[in-house]
Amino acid sequence: MNCEKLSNPSMDKKKKRKHMGNKPKEESTMEKKKNHKSKSIYDILSLELIHIVLMRVPIRHLARLKCVSKLWYSLISDPDFAELHFHHSPVATNACFFIENEAMVYFIYLDDNDASQKVMSPPFKKKPSHFAVLGSCRGFILSYRDPHFLVVWNLLTGFSKRISYSHIVARLKYYVVRLPYKFHLYGFGYDASQDDYLVVVAWQDKDDHYHLDYLSLRTNSWINLDAALSNLLGSYNWNPPGLFFNGTIHWVPSVLEAYRDVILIFDLKERTFSTLSAPEQPVKSACSYSILAVLGGCLGLYYRNYDSRKTEIWVMKEYKVHSTWTLYQIPCEVFQPVCFYSHGDIIGRGYTFSDKRGYFIHNVRGDLLKHFKNLCCPIRRAYAVYTESLLPLPSDIKDKDKKNKRKENCM
């Protein structure tokens, strides 16, 4: 006997009505999903608008956005975009960068309300026996590692370049291990007219003759410039590290005795030396070593006054106008200013009479506004004020162009 499956007509009708009733909803949902998928961010925002938005993103977050898409990666990696962002993005918080135990790098972010730190390893395969920070320029740190190498390093992109100066070492008058004592003067800066980064060194040979050499990172070559040497080179006991500011590298005598003492300037475009009068100074016994700094977009100079037990900070409000030197006094035995904020507050690292140590914010009257305690702060370690950037070195751009040409030729 053949058995047939019995069905309930009323139940079949209900199921049919239910099925028919849900169908339009399912189609509507599918259509919405389809329409949603078909629209991309580029349908909502134009490329020009995306470019404007990215220009306003703080530099430390911009590197992560390369992962959003190939287009964003290409846009953010473009050297022209990196240059525009460096000049027109919101001013990055100045950071203090220094070495601890000659093996690790501490990168300190500082602003009005907060501070944080990041620990990084130097870009070396093997741990060096000595490593020191020499200066910074446009997002690059210039450092020294033994035996005879300089290293240019962009902390944000991870790019690094090693530079040998062994050809100079063999002729030096004094053979010492650490670079700050090898060279009479040294500095790191940027020549905008040639889009080139220069490492400048002045040194003394075994016959007591002074020499001036600079390395062009665009051409990867050392160039002698003895013809441009200043007669002042042997007249003062100079503080060897140079400060890059306004297209020039500046050096100051270790101890200023009078306003007639000068700041030595090397113009990276003209490749010439000139001088600048220092502010009025107390007697030699009253002040410690003088150090240059860029503060609030101006040339600054500071030292410790032993008589008043304060740190005196001079700021030249208008470059090369002697009458605009302005004095600020901070009630700290040791205070190394990192930056001036636009509203006038001064942030720096050091310690006070009561043995408070760390990073401090003072107003222009010297009043303490804030103290950041829990950050690494070795006072006697080398440091540099550093501004992050995505900028490449010119030689790095040329290498990429060569690789791209090779790929095109192989296609």
UniProtKB/TrEMBL annotation:
Pfam families: F-box, FBA_1. It comes from the Eukaryota. Residues 1-35 are annotated as: Disordered. Residues 23-32 have a biased composition (Basic and acidic residues). Residues 1-10 have a biased composition (Polar residues). Residues 45-85 form the F-box domain. Residues 13-22 have a biased composition (Basic residues). PANTHER family: BNACNNG10540D PROTEIN, F-BOX PROTEIN CPR30-LIKE. This is F-box domain-containing protein. The lineage of its organism: Eukaryota, Viridiplantae, Streptophyta, Embryophyta, Tracheophyta.
